[in-house]
Design goal:
The chain has 378 residues and is α/β, with parallel strands linked by helices. The chain has helices at residues 13-25, 72-86, 101-113, 127-135, 148-158, 162-169, 183-191, 243-249, 291-299, 331-339, 367-374; strands at residues 2-9, 30-34, 47-49, 52-58, 66-71, 91-94, 118-119, 142-146, 173-176, 196-202, 207-211, 214-215, 220-224, 227-231, 238-239, 250-253, 256-268, 271-277, 281-284, 287-290, 308-314, 318-325, 350-353. The chain folds into two domains: 2-271, ANL, N-terminal domain (Rossmann fold, 3-Layer(aba) Sandwich), CATH 3.40.50.12780; 280-374, GMP Synthetase, Chain A, domain 3, CATH 3.30.300.30. The protein contains eleven helices and 23 strands. A seven-stranded mixed beta sheet has the order 7-6-8-9-10-11-12, sandwiched between helices. Strands 3-1-2-4-5-15 form a six-stranded mixed beta sheet. Strand 19 and strand 20 form a beta hairpin.
Length: 378
């Protein structure tokens, strides 16, 4: 059994809400949200299996684009797990593009709660736009979801804008996901009276399924050979038209399906700690260095919460850690900070300062573009 797949422009988030509602209840076609004011249907399949309700296109931080196929059951299970973890339903401030799973989930959670999400007006996220949207909300229980770059921008503004500080302090919970959130940024937001929860998940798990290190709903977490694997009812069915990638990413064990993430991690007393990317290990002078470990320490330094650490070429050592940031830190001080925690070979070799970091539309750093900027001529 099949049904049509509608490619829906994200210019009107409330029209997207209606389209997702029809897709979830089976009354309408499955949906694939696309931004940019274009609707190139010919680049997407016209039909999908009946059980598929939502298709999410994602490039991730590396590699070729993927189309993640999610069932109605998975989307609704994700919404139910989130609502339970948050303590009940509420109204959502929509600050993320709905073509990405975090934005789609705001729509799905709103449908499950029977509330209307309030979109932030289009344009660069700012105190003015957020306050305009918050003023139009009519439910006392309020939630929102942000990526760390958005949180950083709002914290900067709120530290000088008491109206914004108080508005977001009135939210029951602010979910932050999409990449590692630096501890100093969390501390600054908490000092403003904001209630933060760090989430972990992906399009393949229908968004965040681990809140502050603990699995929510019926999600299961395991570590296999140092790799984080996730199971439960929110898992995607497959990648559209990519059986090879599907087989490599989704595995079965004892009758249960698992999603093999690209993240390394550890479980301690049921709490997940993501330690970096499986593929982020470089060899420098014959010694292994995890770039994720270096990045975590670098981003904890004052003013460096946007920093990204990538592999750089070196004529003698082969590969070295390179810090890319919009700030202008002092290299020797940064090397001392990293060397105080990690072995000497983990100390950054150089710093590349950019006016703005290239980002994916989801707000995550574009690591491929950053690696190219760090290695001109290679």
């Amino acid at each position: 059994m099949t049904r049509p797949l509608a490619v829906v422009d994200t210019a009107d988030p409330l029209a997207c809400l209606a389209a997702l509602r029809d897709a979830l209840d089976g009354e309408g076609p499955a949906v694939l949200f696309r931004g940019g004011g274009v609707n190139p249907v010919h680049t997407a399949p016209l039909m999908v299996e009946k059980r598929i309700a939502l298709v999410v296109e994602t490039s991730g931080t590396t590699g070729r684009p993927k189309r993640v196929a999610l069932s109605a059951d998975a989307v609704l299970a994700s919404a139910a797990a989130s609502e339970s973890a948050l303590g009940g339903p509420g109204q959502w401030l929509l600050a993320l593009p709905v073509q990405y799973i975090a934005g789609s989930n705001v729509l799905a959670r709103s449908l499950a709660a029977g509330t209307t999400p309030m979109p932030v007006p289009p344009g660069r996220l700012s105190a003015e736009r957020v306050l305009e949207a918050v003023a139009a909300m009519d439910d006392p229980v309020r939630y929102t979801a942000l990526v760390p770059a958005q949180l950083s921008r709002l914290v900067d503004e709120a530290e000088a804008d008491d109206a914004l500080r108080r508005a977001l302090a009135g939210f029951s919970r602010i979910l932050v996901g999409g990449q590692a959130t630096p501890a100093p940024l969390v501390e600054r937001a908490t000092a403003l009276g904001w209630h933060l929860t760090r989430t972990y998940g992906s399009s393949e798990t229908c968004g965040g399924v681990v809140y502050d290190g603990r699995a929510i709903g019926q999600t299961e977490v395991r570590i296999i050979d140092g790799r984080v694997e996730l199971g439960g009812p929110t898992l995607a069915e497959y990648y559209l038209d990519d059986p090879e990638r599907t087989a490599a990413t989704f595995v079965e064990h004892d009758g249960a399906r698992w999603y093999r993430t690209d993240d390394a991690g550890e479980l301690v007393d049921g709490v997940l700690r993501v330690t970096g990317r499986i593929d982020d290990t470089i060899v420098t002078g014959g010694l292994k260095v995890r770039l994720g470990d270096v990045e975590r320490i670098v981003r904890e330094q004052p003013g460096l919460d946007d920093a990204v650490v990538v592999a750089g070429h070196h004529p003698e050592w082969g590969e070295v850690p390179v810090v890319v940031t919009t700030a202008r830190p002092e290299l020797d001080a940064l090397r001392r900070a990293v060397g105080a925690v990690l072995p000497p070979e983990a100390r950054p070799d150089r710093i590349v300062t950019l006016d703005a970091l290239p980002l994916l539309p989801s707000g995550k750093p574009d690591r491929l573009a950053l690696a190219r900027r760090a290695n001109p001529g290679h």
